[in-house]
Amino acid sequence: MEIVGSSLNELSWFLAHMATALALTLFYVVIYMWATPHPEIKLIRENNTAASLAFAGSLLGFCMPLASAITNSNSLVDVLIWGVVALLVQIVIFYLVRLPIPKISERIENGEMASGLWLGVASSAGGLLNAASMTN
After folding, report:
1. pLDDT value for 135
2. What does the DSSP 8-state code read for residue 101?
3. At a CB cut-off of 8 Å and minimum separation 6, what does 82 contact?
4. DSSP label at residue 20
5. Rounded CA gap, 97 and 120, in Å?
6. Cβ neighbourhood burial of 19 (10 Å; 0-12, 13-18, 19+)
7. Model's pTM, two decimal places?
8. Number of H helices and number of E strands within the chain?
9. Per-residue pLDDT for 136 more than 70?
């Protein structure tokens, strides 16, 4: 019974971290959709696979470093700070990905899979490197 009691004592920390992560993720989605010229949710509702791939990759690219921050931080303030850093990194990645493909948003809106995949994988790769960088 003592093991269950100690686990339940950690429940409040779990809930605090989960609520923080969900709030940061929602904040990320709103800011990312504001920063990109193409309407991700509208395109996904229209069954645009390129938009779905791009957005899913960016969401994973944000959540990987957020998970790393939760794992490695000592406080919720640390998680918030590193969550904002992860958001900024994803916005920078979006603009860097546009350098070789300047009209990537138009291409995604037109359902061009290669552009959606390129943005999604670049966002995920950037998020993975971001997460790894947070563990030092």
Report:
1. 75
2. S
3. 65, 66, 68, 69, 73, 134
4. H
5. 10
6. exposed
7. 0.91
8. 7, 0
9. no
